[in-house]
Amino acid sequence: MIKRLFDNGYNGDAGKIFDKGEYMITAREAIQQTTKNVRMHITAELEGVEAGIRSKIALGERKYAYDGYISQVAKQEMEQCGFTVETGMQYNQGWVVIRW
């Protein structure tokens, strides 16, 4: 990307127009986009976990377990909602157990 920037006339000033009408992303824009993407990923993660919980509720169970990982933010959100979240690893494979 940096090579492309200098090849297209980047002069070191963030937000300046390149030869083809393109703009260099600013740090503020990068932070905003990163925050938006993190929120989208966590929302998608929580929606997947919720679907798993609802399927276990329909079966009359009180826990949902799966192989994989849960982000720290998603784990904290689940715990704030009253769930108990256990995580661990065995043979380099992560696992998650959510109880209610």
Helix content: 40-55%
CATH architecture: 2-Layer Sandwich
* Rg, alpha carbons: 21 Å
How many domains would you count in the coordinates?
Answer: 1
The CATH class name reads: Alpha Beta
Overall average pLDDT: 86
Largest sheet: number of strands, sense, barrel closure: 3 strands, antiparallel
Report, as a whole number of angstroms, the end-to-end distance: 48 Å
Described by the principal axes of the CA atoms, the overall outline is elongated
The strand count comes to 3
Strand content: 15-25%
Strand order of the largest sheet: 1-3-2
By secondary-structure content and strand pairing, the structural class works out as alpha+beta
The total of helices stands at 3
Point out poorly predicted stretches. Answer: none
Question: What is the element string, with H for helices and E for strands?
Answer: HHEHEE
CATH topology type = Ribosomal Protein S8, Chain: A, domain 1
What does this protein structure show overall?
The chain is α+β, with helices and mostly antiparallel strands and 100 residues long. The protein has one domain: 2-Layer Sandwich (Ribosomal Protein S8, Chain: A, domain 1), CATH 3.30.1370. Helices cover 47% and strands 19% of the residues. It has helices at 2-7, 27-58, 72-80; strands at residues 63-67, 84-90, 93-99. A 3-stranded antiparallel beta sheet has the order 1-3-2. The model has no long low-confidence stretch (mean pLDDT 86).
